[in-house]
Amino acid sequence: MTIITSIILGVVEGLTEFLPISSTGHLILSSEILKLPNTEFLKSFEIIIQLGAIGAVMALYWRQLLINWAVMKRVAAAFIPTAIIGLLLYKIIKSYLLGNSWVVVGSLFIGGIVLILFELWLTRKDSQTFGAEDTKLENLEKMSYKEAVTIGLCQSLAVIPGVSRSAATIVGGLALNMTREAIVEFSFLLAVPTMLAATGLDLIKSSPDFTVNEFGLLLIGFMVSFLVALLAIKTFLAYIRNNNFIAFGIYRIVIAIVFALVFLI
After folding, report:
1. Distance between CA atoms of 140 and 75, rounded to whole angstroms?
2. What's the domain range around 193?
3. What integer pLDDT is reported at residue 30 of this predicted model?
4. Are the C-beta atoms of 183 and 189 separated by less than 8 Å?
5. What are the residue ranges in the chain where pLDDT is below 70?
6. Fewer CB within 10 A of the end CB, N or C, for the chain?
7. Is 229 helix (H, G, I), strand (E, B) or coil?
8. Contact status, residue 170 vs residue 184, Cβ threshold 8 Å
9. Full-model pTM
10. Which DSSP state fits 178?
């Protein structure tokens, strides 16, 4: 890996971390396009680089993270399922799933179909209840702990590269009748402990083998993903106020087919 490829992957991470299109999946596919060797360092890079984007969340939502304990207790509850599943499946994820382009392509394709069908179902459901009293959850402080854990279980599906942590949590929240703004914000906040834990675990297990040059590449990727994510978060929030996620579902299907035809078949 070079400084240029580190910057490219940092941009990819910053752009995709909070969109329902799987940042890990895009990092793996980008590495394939760049013809980077599927080394243990690259696998660690694809995990650790996400911390840069999470830093952007911490910069934008520090008040909620430090002051709003009612919300953070719900974030903690949602984090528990992912923490348990991620810890139990760490070796399997890193040995067999990370770096597997076919797993990513399949997850992107199936996830795209699910996202489109879910949005169509949600649109039909909302049209049938049009005019009825609006009971959608807007205030995260009023979320029940059962709902928080349910969203956490949805997020845990994202241990499979290509599923998308953002998509899984957003679909889970919308299914629980949360507003789009509320579940997207909760997804941002839930990303903080999730990625801190994933990065910390990988650093503990892998960092003793990193060279000084590799630490430098990680730092560059971190800084780039942080800066790009700052812009991506604000843009995504503006987008979801007036749009659904069908466009992202279509994108997932198209990118999966194109990548499979060009690079895998």
Report:
1. 10
2. 3-264
3. 92
4. no
5. 129-134
6. C
7. helix
8. yes
9. 0.86
10. B
